[in-house]
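User: I've been going back and forth on whether these two constructs are worth ordering. Before I decide, could you fold them both?

Assistant: Sure. I'll take them in the order you sent them. The first construct and its structure tokens:
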Amino acid sequence: ITEIGATIREKLAAKLGSCCFSILTDGSQPRKTGQEKEMVMVRTVNDGVPVFYVVALVDMDSYGNANADNLKKAIDEVFLEKLGLPQATYEHHLIAATSDGASVNTGEYSGLLTQLKSSGRPWLVTIHCVSHRLELALKDCLMKDERFKTAKEFMVLLFYLFKKSGKIKRQFKELAKSLNVTVYSFAKVHGTRFINHVRRGLQKLLNNWPVLMECCENAI
């Protein structure tokens, strides 16, 4: 794996050294480890076709925390040290950068995108991810519908009820076993969840509904 990774980085460095490219970054925190990871990708053109390459998955815990300064430092090290791009190439071939709308990325004075632009790149095009903006717009529209809002609030209530009450969770599973039906854990549909998470949450709620109604009656 180490040798394959080194070969891929070598080929990618040669590719980026001869063309312009843009950066896409996004952070995540796996439930299992709780470690903050930052995915770094590049977008460029290969024989006239737009292509994406994964450059690195950075462990942000090794930098302290995922603030804008550390994100900038981590991304710089990915291109200058891991890929071995010359400083001039990294500075002048980078033409755009995309991230989600978190303030750590899009902050006007010290956000990641602002720092990348101020590092000798006045031409840099900074983009708040179009997919994120579309999801947020859809969420805002749907939340204006009282039926959707009520259903979502109900799912949030169920999520915390079953998360905090081991007794009702156990009764729910025992009842499903007695009825010989399959039930699923109630999904988290709030926070940074997108519309598709809510759709899957509704599917689970509809599947669980008969057992849930019986469980609530027994509990009462």
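The second construct, handled the same way:
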Amino acid sequence: MKNLLSAVSSGVLLLFSFEPFGLWPMAWIALVPLFHAMLGCEDARSAADLAGVTGLLFYGLSLHWLIKVFGPMAAAFWCVFALWLVLPAALWRRAAMGAPAWRAVVAAGALWAGAEYFRAEVWPLACPWLALGFSQVPCKPLLQLSSLIGVYGLSALVVSANAAFALALRGKRGPALAAVLGLAGAAAWGVCRMADPTLLGTEELKVALIQDESYDLDRMAGLSTAAEALDADLLVWPEYGFSVQAGQESSYAALISRRLRASRAVAILGGATLPEEPRDGGMRNFAWVMAPGGRLLGSYDKLHPIPFIEKYLRPNPRPEPVDTPLGLLGTLICYDLDFEDGARRMAGLGARLLAVPNLDPMEWKDWQHRQHSGMAPMRAVESGLWVARAASSGISQVIDPAGRVKAALPSGRSGVLAAKARLKEGGTPYTRLGWLLAPLCMMFCAVSLAAWMLEQVEERYAAFLTILS
């Protein structure tokens, strides 16, 4: 019963570490009860059972809003999420027993990050939501670490610190002291990075983000030419801001061009092509990039369609920034920003700002909106770029490269978010080499799993030989 209460405690602490609560310090101790209990388990299977309790409680409560999207099938998604918490927990219990404390601490972070990266970025049901590193978005000094090691590297640090604190409860205090000193040093470095004026760029521009869920072209155009948006340099509509029948794209682009005639902004307009029969292909989720005056400069198709919901969309094989009068602008559509590769690739290709048409229906409620918008600052820091994110019903945001939200429009409002942003050259140590840390952790996790499976086979083979003899 004591171990079960420890697992439940970790699930509750993890819940409060993330939005909409945002109590980020809890993440650094959330797994201590679970790890402490696992160290007392007889075997890895018992440790896995405890981790399953933590995972089901954490993901089930945090992602309760999935019921509005998938209905009863949401329970299956909670179980899948929990699985990728169970795996590193079981592997860590095996690796930690009898190992030096330092090795156990490093293994905890590497195994977690490897499994989390696979769950979030690699396998067919990839979903980055609630990666542990996202819990640190409210703590801007520590968030700066993601410019070096990204969200999964930050997850590894959080988990390793938890393992160190759990071992301290068993008398092994060296790693815990190092973790505290390391966090203090990282926070001090983060404060210095945030104070660097070159981080923000020098070319200022005004952005106007349209937040509206009407899907009505007249209303979208009216908001885009309202007084607060009329002098904007960059205009961004939400995802699925309009829809057009296949084959009518040129005439519809001309229609939008006429409606936006009064605007002098470069416009990035989220839209969709809807064929009569989506199964036959031709469905697109795209963003048009228009010059002032309405000339079509380019188009961007969604890189990461949402599994099941956008099953007829074909992923964009070559996402690239579009050359505009403002320079190269990178576009990512909604779910694309949740993954680490889109922002990283855009920065590497020379984008000077990330514009993000986004769809978060009001029926999914503020809890979901706050979780989703809480991920966007991570991508700004990883890529070193400003992010202008226009959400259909909120939360629209303008975010600087230090992850600070400079302006936002709350959930449920329809209107224009007008704010200042800057153009700058992107790229960070993370976009150059730091992103490789997560795949390396995944390889370590895979090797650890293979070694464990081989060990199980050898034990069973030895038992079989014993029976035969």
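Notes on the second construct follow. The two ends are 41 Å apart (CA to CA). The chain is about 50% helix and 15% strand.
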